[in-house]
Amino acid sequence: MTHQPSHRFERGTDGPKVIVVGVDGSGSSLRAAAYAYGLARRQRALLAAVYVQPVMAAGAALGAPVADATEEIAEDLVARIREADERLGGPSGIRWEFHTFRGDPYNGLVRAADDLRADAVVVGASERAGHRLVGSVAVRLVKAGRWPVTVVP
């Protein structure tokens, strides 16, 4: 009897091939990005940096330029990643992509991880005190149990 190779996607067979890191410009997300960068370099994996642009209905209703502000954050994050990539090994250091999604961070990261077939997700620990009671994005990702999740302090 011969075994036919499966054409299904398998997780965890040869180490991570795609690492998703959530970035939002906070100190903990930048530390998570640095950690994920090193992990991607060592594993020769694709690093997918994901910024989830918040939807702020109240701000938009009051005439606040929400889209402009979130686009500026995304552009700043891409510039920071490029600078770090050049500083840490040049353009050939690792393969990386930058993705933006709109919505709440948890659902945006879940969508990104699913769409990109992530083998691992890296996020920064929440810096907001209220998340200790309600639950942070990191805790929700861990509870989802769909990927290994690393939470960087």
Q: Strands, helices and their partners?
A:
Layout (H helix, E strand, L loop, with lengths): L17 E5 L4 H17 L2 E8 L3 H5 L4 H22 L7 E8 L2 H11 L4 E5 L6 H4 L2 H8 L4 E4 L1
Parallel strand pairs: 1-2, 1-4, 2-3, 4-5
Q: Please count the helical segments.
A: 6
Do you know the CATH architecture? Answer: 3-Layer(aba) Sandwich
Amino- and carboxy-terminal Cα gap? 51 Å
At the fold tier of CATH, the topology name is: Rossmann fold
The gross shape turns out to be globular
Q: Give the CATH H-level superfamily.
A: HUPs
Range of helix content: 40-55%
Low-confidence stretches: 63-67, 130-134
The pLDDT mean sits at 77
Q: Return the domain count.
A: 1
Q: Report Rg.
A: 17 Å
What is the chain-wise order of helices and strands? EHEHHEHEHHE
Number of strands: 5
Q: Strand order across the biggest sheet? A: 3-2-1-4-5
Top-tier CATH class: Alpha Beta
Strand content: 15-25%
Domain UspA: 17-153
Pfam families: Usp (PF00582)
Protein name: Universal stress protein
InterPro entries: Rossmann-like_a/b/a_fold (IPR014729), Universal_stress_UspA (IPR006015), UspA (IPR006016)
